[in-house]
Amino acid sequence: MKHKNFYILLFLLTTLQGCYLLKKSRDRHITQFALSNRSEIKEAAAIAVAIAFEQRKNSFFISQVIDTSVRRKLRRYGNMITVCFSDGPSYEIPDSCVTFTTITLVGATDIIYDFAARDRRFEDKKDNRRDYYFIRVADRLYYRRRPVPMM
User: Domain residues of the chain, as ranges?
Assistant: First the structure.
């Protein structure tokens, strides 16, 4: 019985550590992807703003985009788009940003493009990396991982 409990505990500890390493690896992969595709993300953000104005919605799923070439271009960066013009949700940059969100078992990962008229800087949040992670990838480009909403 002792050995069985030991192996169960060892399995749980290994699994939890594996999840953390998976999150860290995914963070690195997505930030490198965003860094190497800065101009394409800027273009996709401009398209997202145009779609948001046209549909009069601040957030929409990419599957709702009618044009297949545009849908294919936007899908590279996430499954859902949120455009904040002013006073976004509490977890968003307050205004003038486009967020490309992908929800997985690791959490909700966001590529954020800041299109504000003035240059702004936001503080990196790395202190609780297991649950929440926010960094500046490049000028006007940010990456965030947070827990899945409603879980």
Answer: 2-146
